[in-house]
Each structure stands twice: as C-alpha cells, then as structure tokens.
User: Fold this.
Amino acid sequence: MSLPLEGVRVLELGQIIAGTYGGQILSDMGAEVIKIESPNGDLGRNPSVAPLNQISGLFLTFNRNKKSVVIDMKTNEGRDTFLNLVKCSDIVVDNFRPGVMERLGIAYPILTATNPRIIHCSITGFGSEGEYKNYPALDIIIQAISGHMAVTGESGRPPVRLGIPLADLSGGLFSSQGILAALYEREKTNKGQHLELSMFDAMLSLLTYMGTMWLSDGVLPKPPGSGHEYSVPWQAFATKDSYIVVATREENVWERFCKSILSEKLFLDDRFSTNALRVKNRTELIPLLEPIFLKETTEYWMDRFRINQVPAGPVNHLDQAFAEPPAIEGNMVLECIHSQAGVVRMPAYPVKIGDTRSKVCEPAPLLGQHTDEILSTLLSYGPSQITQLKSVGAIHDQGDKKW
Assistant:
C-alpha cells in the first residue's frame, strides 16, 4: 500500500530543527520533500553539532528522505527557478526571520500569484509582527521565556532545560499538523493559504493544564522534579541498583501499591487513605517509602508491580529504552547508509497508518545532491540551461562543497 502523502510535494526552506522536523514528519508519511538550500547550506549541517563521522547527527536525523537543491535566491535567475518549482508543488515551509521572504521576493502574495493552490507555512520565534519579532529564537531562549524552564527540575535548584529541544521540535509538530489541515481544506476549496506558527505560541500551548491553572486561579506551579503536584506517590525512587517511577492516584491502585511493597501499615494509615490526603501529607509519606525501595533492585520491584498491576517503570537511559520490547516490536529504529557518515540508525516515525509500513529510509542528502535531477525532471531544464544557471551562480550542485 502507498503512504498517505505520496504525490504531495514540499519545498522546504527550513533550517536546523524548527524548520525541518515538520518536513521530516511529512516525508515519513510519503511526501516528496525538496530541501531548497542556499550555497552555504542549512545551518544544521554544522559538523560540530552531534558529530557522527564528521557529519552533523542533527542534520542526518531531521533530513532523512529529503532531496537537496541549491538555489541562490538572491539572484534573479535563482528566484525565477524557485518560483518555477512553486508552480508544481503543494507546500512551501520556511523558518526565516520576519521580512526575509519579502526581501527575497518570494513572500506569500507572490507564491499564491504563482500557484493559487500553494500552502505556505512560516515558522517564527515570536511571530511576524510585534515587539519581539526580531528577538533571537534559539530553543533554550524559547524554553526559558515561555515558562517551561520554571517548571522543570527540582524545587529550590537552578532552572533546568528539558533534555530534548522541545521548543524547536514544537515548530515541526505544529507546522505539520497545520499543513495537513490546510491540505484537507484545499480539497474542498481548491485554494491554498498562508499559515503562521510561532515557537513561543507553541510552547505556551504545550503548557496545557498548567497554563489553565495559572490563568484561572493565579497560582504559579513549582518545579516538581519527578513528582506530581496533584498525585502522591507519583515520582522516581532510588532502588538498590538504579531508579524506578511509580504512579498511583486512585485508591484501588494505592491499595495494590501497598500490597506490592508489603506494607499494610501504610494502607491503614488515615493520613494516606485518599490521594488528597497523600498530597497534603507528601512530606511525611515520601520519607517512609524511600528506604523501602532501597532494599531491593529495580527488577525486583518491577516484577512485584507488574504482578499487582501497579503503574511503574524503570528510569531507562537510551540504551535500555531502545532495547525495550515495544521499541523492537514497533520497528522504532530506522537504518540507512550515508555516503560519508556510514551506517546511521535513528528513531522512526511513530504513527502506524492502516496496513502501511514505513518507507525505506533514504539518507540525508549532500548539499546540492539533487539539483540537476530536480531541475531536469520537474522543470524540464536541459543541460545547457542548467550549465548557464550554474555559470551565473543561481544554482549549485554537490560538487561545489563537501557538505
């Protein structure tokens, strides 16, 4: 069976993560993603970022299944070539700073005049208008200014950045959703549209119920560490050899938890008989549980909790996480062979759609690897025309730079 987005063509002007993760998602669903790069290439190609055989592991991850075409949009010939590609494409994605698309002469009014069915998604840090529109939008800055770092880590300790670049990733997660909605609407209207997404807005949205509680009752949450402000015990505990998390809220789960740790005394203690009381008496309960967990290994406790159907899990590092049965059963590791980096293994797209299977993983492209191929097949440019464009610096192929 074909993948659901086969036949959809994306022109990706995005860079690093926020502008490329959405394209990776669309490509995993079958879309053809043509990565339009400047002669210097996507900044994510920087080999000092997660280096893997002198190639950026970041770039290898977010640009699998894509094709690279190098166009210098600052030349008239390059701009015209890009707009010719727009005529036969469905989606344009960029994460330039506000005003860049206008300066290049490829803003949405020009795109839609070129192809009324085009869908253009712009990803910015803080929006295309307003006081912060030109403010630097690196992941750590968005995590900090959006409130996420204030609710991450241990209470009374310095702020902690989330271990993954969630602010950057939010650009890809929400942009791909918006693009899919726009594609669906285009089926009804036959018209494209302009979408705009700011990473700051995305991170505010991801605050979800924490944002609701602050906006509604004015109480600022504290960083909970591994704990939960509304449920106890719901956190990590040190065991004899590592760490384990447990999650008990309902009273029947609390009963099974006490049975698992062989503590009828705790179950009968009136201070802990309901979740509300356990939250109220958290500082009394947790010190009673900590020495119990330290007596046995994580494996021992996991066996006990599984038998009694208590929600629990080991605190895995990546080596253990990718070795878990669901990771293997769900085919959550892709493998491809890159001409310079060698064998590259990476996390797979998680959504299983009907009876389809993930398509074969193609390695991230070299800079300009597909320039000649795309221009000749999609635009019917002949060899002399391609040579002429190269001579004026409008396009480049992979021979022009090692990346």
User: Anything to note?
Assistant: The longest strand covers residues 32-37. The chain has two domains: 9-206+331-400, 234-238+243-314.
